[in-house]
Amino acid sequence: MRKKTLLRGLAVVLVAIMSLMVVVPAMAELPPEEGNLFIHKYIGIPIEQLPNDGTDIEDWVGWDTFDWPESVVAVNGVVFDVYKVDTTDGAPPAGMIYVLVEDSGDFSLEVWEADGSSLIETYELEAPISATTTGDGVAQFPGLDQGIYLVVENTVTTINIYDASDPTKELFISSPCAPFLVAVPMTNPDGDGWLTNVHVYPKNTGLTVEKEVTTNDAVVVGDVVGFSIKVSIPDDIFDSNQFDIYDILDAALDYVPNSVSVRTLIGTNTYATVSQTYYTVDYDIPTRTLSVEFTPTGRDYLAENFEFVIVSFNTTVNATILDKPGYTVYNQGVVEFRNHNGDYFEGKNPPGVTEIHTAAIEIEKVDENNTPLEGSEFMIATSAENARLGRFLKIHPTTKVLYDYGHADYDLAILELYVAKPLSPSTGEPAVARFEGLLEYTKNLTTGVKTYQTYYIVETQAPDSYNLLDKSIVVTFTGNESNHVYLCEVENTKGFTLPSTGGIGTVVFTVVGVTLIGTAVMVGITSKKKTKKSIN
Question: What's the whole-model pTM score?
Answer without folding.
Answer: 0.66
